[in-house]
Amino acid sequence: MQEITIHDKVFEPYITEEQINTRIDVLAHELDTSYRDASPVLISVLNGSFIFAADLFRKMTVPAEITFVKVSSYSGTQTTGNVKELIGLDYRIEGRDVIIIEDIVDTGITIHALLSQIKNRQPKSIKVCTLLNKPSRREIDVPVHYAGFEIPDRFVVGYGLDLDGLGRNLPHIYQLKTEHHA
Ligand code: IMP
User: What is the pTM of this model?
Assistant: First the structure.
């Protein structure tokens, strides 16, 4: 596999399509086992998680449902920085078992905002499932119940993840090449 360049940045292969596929088989099986007597609702966070969510969802065999939301960020008037707002949750989730599907949990700010807004709708349970987890970047402590891969603090693209809009359609995950690796 070769290095690729996006917006003048060089990325090297990191997690192959095959490794992703094998890991998602395991995650889908874990979810099937945890939810064997239930019918969960997956809430996929756009844009980044749409490919992961589609692959995971297809591999699950319990009678699951799926819906999609976006999280907007706008500059708040307070000095606390960005405020995140949940957009597009038009699905009835009251009393349901909800699984949030993310591409990556980085600072935790997005998941934190999602959890508090989804909890307001009074689901029966909420779990977080992410393809990638970067624990060393955490600014807010958030629960991650299911994670595909724990990765170090390196920017990644591919398999849904982007750099300024590009890279989402790459089948493998690539990481930004740093000078130590040059
Ligand atoms: P958080 O709110 O900091 O946890 O960030 C979550 C969002 O930031 C993810 O859903 C991604 O869209 C984006 N993000 C964080 N790290 C990366 C990365 O390495 N590559 C691409 N997007 C990322």
Answer: 0.94
Integer Cα distance of 81 and 72 in angstroms: 13
Q: Quote the number of domains for the chain.
A: 1
Separation of alpha carbons 14 and 62, rounded Å: 31
CATH number of the domain enclosing 140: 3.40.50.2020
Segment 34-61 shows an average pLDDT of 98
Q: Residue 111's CB: how many other CB atoms inside 10 A?
A: 22
Residue 182 forms part of a structural domain: no
Neighbours of 148 (CB within 10 A): 23
10 within domain boundaries: no
**137 CA: nearest ligand 1 atom:** 3
Q: Contact, 95 vs 124, CB < 8 A?
A: yes
Which pLDDT does position 178 carry in this prediction?
85
In a domain, 4, yes or no: no
pLDDT at residue 132 is higher than 60: yes
pLDDT, averaged across the chain: 93
Question: Which residues line the pocket of ligand 1, CB cutoff 6 A?
Answer: 48, 102-110, 155-157, 161
CA of 102 to the centre of ligand 1 (A): 9
